[in-house]
UniProtKB/TrEMBL annotation:
CDD domains: REC_OmpR, trans_reg_C
Domain OmpR/PhoB-type: start-end pairs: 129-227
Residues in the DNA-binding region annotation: 129-227
Native organism taxonomy: Bacteria, Pseudomonadati, Pseudomonadota, Alphaproteobacteria, Maricaulales
Family annotation (InterPro entries): CheY-like_superfamily (IPR011006), OmpR/PhoB-type_DNA-bd (IPR001867), Sig_transdc_resp-reg_receiver (IPR001789), WalR-like (IPR039420), WH-like_DNA-bd_sf (IPR036388)
Keyword Phosphoprotein attached: yes
Keyword DNA-binding included in the entry's annotation: yes
Annotated protein name in UniProt: Response regulator transcription factor
Amino acid sequence: MAAKRTVLIVDDDADLRDALADQFSYDDEFAVLTADSAKPGIKLAQDEQVDIVILDVGLPDMDGREACRILRKNGVTKPVILLTAQSGDADHVLGLRSGASDFIAKPVSFVVLLERLNTHLRRHEQSEDAVLQLGPYQFKPSMKLLLEGDRKVRLTEKETNILKYLYRAGGETIAREELLDKVWGYHREANTHTLETHVYRLRQKIEPEGSKARLLVTESGGYRLQL
């Protein structure tokens, strides 16, 4: 089962906020956080492991576009989708200039919102800004780096790609041959021994007890991440 992604919904319309939260909660892929105004929403976005923010423009304590600017200024790089009752081009431009990833006019179609949300999540995971939570580490694939407090773990390109592919599997077991094909490519001069060697070296870097696997686990025929 894939790891859940956390959606933060910030909207003062309780009916809409609760309806969206219920719809996301029906899907095992998502966990939901909510706030009814900008300031608690900003705090949640900064303090919690949030994957995407849905932010209303017309909030009681602050314009949602200003809230988005504050998030970007404070280093929040996760996608932000703005919701608004206005649908003009000028409002759209102002929303994007605030640092928003997207802009959707009310009334909101959940099907459209879900499609846009999944698109931005996929793009973010492939971007230079992606930061993925992997056990006790913050995983920055673009930098080939794992962070645990002040500790930095440098990764090779192959180690990074192994972790990325296993992360996207959401805790499911990936067969050795599949990992070889995805990490080394179909036209490769690598075999299962090559993969096992890389996994061994990777465990020496990331496992608290070296080769004793708690995060990168061996299963019958392959490997999985304990997320």
